[in-house]
Design goal:
Elements lengths: L1 E7 L1 E3 L5 E9 L3 E10 L6 E7 L4 E3 L7 E6 L4 E6 L8 E10 L5 E5 L3 E5 L2
Parallel strand pairs: 2-11
Antiparallel strand pairs: 1-3, 3-8, 4-5, 4-9, 5-6, 7-8, 9-10, 9-11
C-alpha cells in the first residue's frame, strides 16, 4: 500500500508565498512521476506541476513563473513552492504518485489533499 503525506497549505494574502510538501512511503517499487494537482470549487481537478523520474517537469500555464516543483528522489518527496499567489490559486491541492509497486503492477495514488486559500 502506498501512502502520501501532504503538508503545507493554509491561508495567504494575494502576492504571498506558500510551500507544499508530499512524502511517499509504503510499497513502492519505482516512481515514474510525482506531482501536484488542484481542484477549485465547482471545477475539475487540473494539473499544477509534475516531475518525472527522468527530471522532466510540466507546469500548468497559469502557474508558470510563479510555482516551482522539486523532488528529492532519495526521500520520495516532492515540494511545490508557490509564489505571487493569486485568489484564483485557491483550491484543494492533491499530491499524486504514478509508478509501480512491483515489476508489473502499476499504481496511481492520490493524497488526501490540502487546502490553499488566497484571500485578503
Amino acid at each position: 500500500q502506498v501512502h502520501l503525506v501532504e503538508s503545507g497549505g493554509g491561508l495567504m494574502q494575494p502576492g504571498g508565498s506558500l510551500s507544499l510538501s508530499c512524502e511517499a512511503s509504503g510499497r513502492i517499487f519505482s516512481i515514474n512521476a510525482m506531482g501536484w494537482y488542484r481542484q477549485a470549487p465547482g471545477k475539475e481537478r487540473e494539473l499544477v506541476a509534475r516531475v518525472t523520474s527522468g527530471g522532466s517537469i510540466d507546469y500548468a500555464d497559469s502557474v508558470k513563473g510563479r510555482f516551482t516543483i522539486s523532488r528529492v528522489n532519495a526521500m520520495n518527496t516532492v515540494y511545490l513552492q508557490m509564489n505571487s499567489l493569486k485568489p484564483e490559486d485557491t483550491a484543494v491541492y492533491y499530491c499524486n504518485l504514478r509508478g509501480y509497486i512491483d515489476y508489473v503492477t502499476p499504481v496511481d495514488h492520490w493524497g488526501e489533499g490540502t487546502l490553499v486559500t488566497v484571500s485578503s
